[in-house]
């Protein structure tokens, strides 16, 4: 089990635009299809990104402020957005407006999807960026090679790390899925007095799931989950995980079959993501593209601008 407290001094700038600072909380195993990175993202300046997609999955929860997803879609504070692997979103135009730099903060989990393409670690990404900068240059989201050709930066980094073209799985879902937890009912957790659950859903053949857990003051939640790894963030309240104190934005990683023993001092709410192992398909899917945005996506984007 890993327990990582929130540290407001641990922000680093790892985003290609330079307008977002990250706080790295939890991470998985590099070169594994189950790899993941759980971070806090802080918006420090006006933010803009073109329409794009990834070959991995994302879950985002704005804990302070909203997030523009493009085309009139907004992920509001407290809502949970599931971004399926291979699904395009944006263009994102998010000026700070009345918000102060650093005021908008969101939880972001990026992880390998059911297609088995995995997720490149931040260490691999940083090293590849350093090596590529010796023969070309990064300018925002793009990488410019010595021969004058430009490429989406993350694609160039991926190909440098893995030695092959990046594949984008065709999304299993048609759009970002947004859940508003306030509209879900609290239901009692069996065999746990004064502990309730809001189950937000399960997705893809992997069976990744999301839920909220609420503990009343002085309540205790002891649980073991055989299905997969659990990533937990304290959204509010104080308490202890075993003998370790936890408070707002503490992150907890619990492995399969490992027992979580959490007690609440004040009313405490948790955001829980369950990550079962990535299943190995009987046949490799041919449902993928090599391009960042297909011609159909380009035409649709031009039709909305």
Question: How are the SSEs placed, and which strands pair?
Answer:
Layout: E1 2-4, E2 20-27, E3 36-43, E4 47-49, E5 57-64, E6 67-70, E7 73-75, E8 80-83, E9 92-94, E10 104-111, H1 122-132, E11 137-139, E12 142-144, E13 150-152, H2 153-162, E14 168-169, E15 177-179, E16 187-188, E17 195-203, E18 208-215, E19 220-224, E20 229-236, E21 239-241, E22 244-246, E23 251-254, E24 259-264, E25 268-275, E26 288-289, H3 295-302
Antiparallel strand pairs: 1-23, 2-3, 3-10, 4-9, 5-8, 5-10, 6-7, 8-15, 11-12, 12-13, 14-26, 16-17, 17-18, 18-25, 19-24, 20-23, 20-25, 21-22, 21-24
- Rounded mean pLDDT is 93
Portion in strands:
35-45%
Number of helices: 3
Radius of gyration from the CA trace?
20 Å
Report on this structure.
The structure is a single chain. The longest helix has 11 residues, at 122-132. It is built from three helices and 26 strands. With 305 residues, the protein is mainly beta. The chain is globular and about 65 Å long.
Summarize the structure.
With 305 residues, the chain is mostly beta strands. The chain has helices at residues 122-132, 153-162, 295-302; strands spanning 2-4, 20-27, 36-43, 47-49, 57-64, 67-70, 73-75, 80-83, 92-94, 104-111, 137-139, 142-144, 150-152, 168-169, 177-179, 187-188, 195-203, 208-215, 220-224, 229-236, 239-241, 244-246, 251-254, 259-264, 268-275, 288-289.
Provide tags for this entry.
10% helix, seven-stranded antiparallel sheet, six-stranded antiparallel sheet, globular, 305 residues, mainly beta, 3 helices
């Amino acid at each position: 089990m890993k327990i990582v407290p929130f540290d407001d001094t641990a922000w680093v700038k790892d985003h290609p635009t330079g307008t977002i600072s990250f706080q790295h909380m939890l991470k998985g195993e590099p070169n594994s299809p189950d790899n993941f990175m759980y971070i806090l993202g802080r918006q420090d300046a006006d933010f803009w990104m073109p329409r794009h997609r990834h070959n991995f999955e994302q879950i985002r929860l704005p804990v302070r402020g909203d997030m523009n997803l493009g085309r009139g879609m907004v992920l509001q504070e407290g809502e949970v957005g599931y971004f399926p692997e291979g699904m395009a979103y944006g263009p994102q135009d998010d000026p700070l407006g009345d918000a102060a730099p650093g005021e908008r903060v969101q939880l972001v989990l990026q992880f390998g999807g059911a297609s088995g393409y995995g997720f490149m670690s931040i260490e691999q990404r940083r090293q590849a960026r350093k090596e590529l900068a010796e023969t070309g240059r990064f300018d925002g989201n793009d990488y410019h090679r010595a021969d004058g050709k430009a490429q989406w930066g993350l694609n160039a980094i991926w190909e440098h790390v893995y030695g092959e073209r990046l594949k984008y799985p065709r999304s299993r879902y048609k759009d970002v899925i947004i859940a508003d937890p306030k509209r879900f009912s609290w239901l009692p957790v069996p065999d746990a007095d004064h502990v309730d659950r809001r189950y937000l859903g399960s997705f893809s053949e992997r069976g990744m799931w999301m839920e909220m857990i609420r503990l009343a003051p002085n309540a205790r939640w002891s649980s073991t989950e055989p299905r997969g790894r659990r990533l937990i963030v304290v959204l509010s309240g104080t308490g202890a995980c075993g003998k370790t104190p936890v408070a707002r934005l503490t992150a907890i990683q619990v492995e399969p079959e490992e027992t979580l023993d959490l007690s609440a001092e004040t009313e405490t709410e948790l955001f829980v993501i369950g990550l079962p192992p990535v299943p190995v398909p009987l046949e490799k899917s041919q449902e993928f593209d090599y391009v960042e945005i297909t011609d159909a996506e380009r035409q649709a984007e031009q039709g909305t601008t």
